[in-house]
Specification:
With 341 residues, the chain is an alpha/beta fold. Helix content is 26%, strand content 25%. It has helices spanning 58-62, 137-147, 166-175, 188-197, 211-218, 232-241, 254-258, 270-275, 291-305, 321-330; strands at residues 12-18, 31-37, 45-55, 84-90, 101-104, 111-115, 120-121, 155-158, 180-185, 202-205, 223-228, 242-250, 279-282, 312-316, 336-340. The strands form three sheets. Strands 3, 4, 5, 6, 7, 14 and 15 form a seven-stranded mixed beta sheet that branches. Strands 10-9-8-11-12-13 form a six-stranded parallel beta sheet, sandwiched between helices. Helix 2 (137-147) crosses helix 3 and helix 5 (211-218) packs parallel to helix 6. The structure holds NADP nicotinamide-adenine-dinucleotide phosphate (NAP). This is NADP-dependent oxidoreductase YfmJ.
Length: 341
């Protein structure tokens, strides 16, 4: 980005494109970093200099051509997309002004050209770190409050507890009055962090023996609320241990999304659901967008008074974005995974 235009903008910027669809594990050669001209906004459009973008597990799903998730798949030869924050550079004919902090869905590029209607203005003072707008907190909050309806006195099981969603779901469940919170993760190292740093009371470990046995030992009196990010044997274990009237929120399906097995089904004994009046509720943020301002208020307050933390990892430079996604899928990070651009 050496050449500059008369307005001081660089002549070119970089974007990450999908080079090919995965047939197996996610590898470098499925991505291409391309240098392209910085776009110029027409009236009604906003040119944003992206400062930070997030990668997330759903992006592995969106690399496939056809998916059940209510988001467009990535297109071969075109830049990937996903949440990003940045500063407005130019916004002719809109309510935005240069310097405004904004969030939008056109990450994976250094400069984004976005229709004004698809740009959300963000308050610089609400969160102590603007990157926290990229947390998976809205999903975690939705799943705890409206999905699992966590109440005071609950024992709660969060699957995928160390990820972007799960690392906040446990903290939010505690603030809603849960008395015992158990999380699942993929290694002893992460299990230790869940208990020592993220407020979990106990952890069960994927690959360290039957989850149901581990969960029975961690929750001898059963579980009242479940925040399921994983599905498969973890959901089966949650149902086996669910108390009468338990609420189970189906928020993610990491075992199907990331295992590469292609298996998308979980066998469930429906008789045990109805016999114990268990609620199984699929829930998606798209239907609960109105919760986002409420969450941001609570997140800002919680980060400042120390009742919430934002577990995350940051990588630097757009060329690191493919590695960030690959490492997230491999389970190498705790919390959200962000890339500074
Ligand atoms: N319903 C909604 O509106 C909504 C919105 C956003 C996200 N989601 C979903 O919420 C879930 C969590 O999202 P996230 O972005 O926070 O993901 P994430 O948990 O950060 O995903 C990465 C983690 O998945 C775990 N993992 C890897 N392979 C796995 C496997 N085979 N089985 C089980 N876990 C595996 C690893 O954690 P460990 O090493 O700890 O196992 C890894 O660190 C995803 O399913 C996502 O699609 C739903």
């Amino acid at each position: 980005m050496t050449n500059r235009t008369e307005g001081g903008l660089p002549a070119t910027h970089r974007e990450v494109r999908l080079a090919a669809r995965p047939q197996g594990p996610i590898t470098d050669d499925l991505f291409e970093v391309a240098e392209v001209p910085v776009p110029r906004p027409a009236p009604g459009q906003v040119l944003v200099r992206n400062t930070t973008m997030a990668v997330a597990a759903v992006m592995r799903t969106l690399m496939d051509e056809v998916t059940p998730v209510p988001m467009p798949s990535f297109v071969v030869g075109e830049p990937l997309h996903g949440s990003a924050i940045g500063e407005v550079v130019e916004a002719p004919g809109t309510d935005f002004a240069p310097g405004d902090l904004v969030e939008h869905h056109f990450g994976w590029r250094e400069y984004a050209l976005v229709d004004a209607a698809a740009v959300q203005r963000r308050d610089r003072d609400l969160l102590p770190d603007p990157a926290a707008y990229l947390s998976q907190g809205p999903t975690a909050y939705m799943g705890v409050v409206r999905g699992a309806e966590v109440r005071a006195g609950d024992t709660v099981f969060v699957t995928g507890a160390a990820g972007g969603v799960g690392s906040l779901a446990g903290q939010i469940a505690r603030l809603r009055g849960a008395v015992r919170i158990i999380g699942s993760t993929g290694s002893q190292r992460k299990a230790d962090i869940l208990v020592k740093e993220l407020g979990y009371d106990a952890a069960v470990i994927r690959g360290a023996g039957p989850i149901e046995e581990q969960l029975r030992a961690a929750a001898p009196d059963g579980v009242d609320a479940v925040f399921d990010n994983v599905g498969g044997d973890q959901l089966q274990a949650a149902i086996a241990l669910a108390n009468r009237g338990a609420r189970i929120a189906l928020v993610g399906a990491l075992s199907a999304q990331l295992s590469g097995s292609g298996a998308h089904t979980t066998e469930i004994d429906t008789l045990s659901l109805l016999a114990r009046s268990i609620t199984l509720r699929g829930i998606a943020l798209y239907d609960h967008l109105s919760l986002i301002p409420e969450w941001n208020e609570q997140f800002g307050r919680g980060l400042r008074d120390g009742t919430l933390t934002f577990p995350h990892t940051r990588l630097h430079g757009i060329e690191e974005a493919p590695r960030a996604l690959m490492e997230l899928i491999e389970g190498r990070h705790m919390g959200a995974v962000l890339v500074e651009l």
